[in-house]
Amino acid sequence: MLKAKAIRIREPGGPEVLELGEVELSAPGPSQVLVEVAAAGLNRADCLQRRGFYPAPPGVPADVPGLEFAGLVESVGNEVSDWKPGDRVMGIVGGGSMTTRLVTEGAELMSVPAQLSLEEAAAVPEAFLTAYDAVVLQGGLRAGQTVLLHAVASGVGTAGIQIATAVGASSVGTSRSAHKLPRCTGLGLTHAVLVEDGRFADNVLAAVPNGADVILDTIGAAYLSQNIKVIAKQGRLIVIGLMGGVKAELALGALLAKRASIHGSVLRSRSSKEKAELTKSFIDQMLGKLESGELKPIVDEVMEMADVRSAHERMDSNETFGKLVLRW
Predict the structure, then answer these.
(1) Which domains can be identified in the chain, with CATH numbers?
(2) Are 130 and 106 in contact (CB under 8 A)?
(3) pTM of the prediction?
């Protein structure tokens, strides 16, 4: 068995339950790759898992957080031909990326663009794959359409702004923090909307009277009725988060009248095959835009892995703009 240092969750609770420990892992199988992890992005899901609200899927370490990483290939299985030791790679996992070494499927890895550091690359996979999958593949966003991005200053939100611009679409973004919106506009956000007392619909419709063709929603129940109000005819609402609750009443008449649809989506628990397919699609359609600089990860701060408790405190306080990254 191989050994690695890892951040471990001692028990459900606040940031104080996070501690440095050690894990064992098997050597890579025929189609797998052993990666020496340099850095891992911190996501809202990590904080939820720490609190006991978002358990890891089967087969994933239950007490090691982390959904994305960047690092160097250490070794490969005998069926792997795309990667070799020393290659700079990044990717998503179902959990357990906050460790100094991990084993993952070779088909789920992406090359790190030459101009990105490994710390910057660690901010790419979860945010950009989530936004691309939800907005483009599921939402069908295309040139001339409009996407509404909630929590627009988040990692997924800032990725969504850039992806919308890349496909020729316009974007509307909401945030409860007024000081974050000008920075989003600087990334290419077309219309910035401040959420006040939980309301945004009237201001969204003032900016885009025909409504949003695609809505990327991380909030859930609290925003459902207003999302239906601002969704365009034949629009698509993609729900990827439930920070604002899990239950709400739905005005079915409005949904039918607009011939709109609601899609629920989660990335973490998808099969390896599904993740590999998404990764390949992103490589084909978007990785070149990262290499050219058209897309770029927005990193709020790079922190040492030893400071993981402080990083969780910052995430919990909603202070961040873009991504927090933890490095070994």
Answers:
(1) 2-124+268-327 (3.90.180.10), 127-264 (3.40.50.720)
(2) no
(3) 0.95
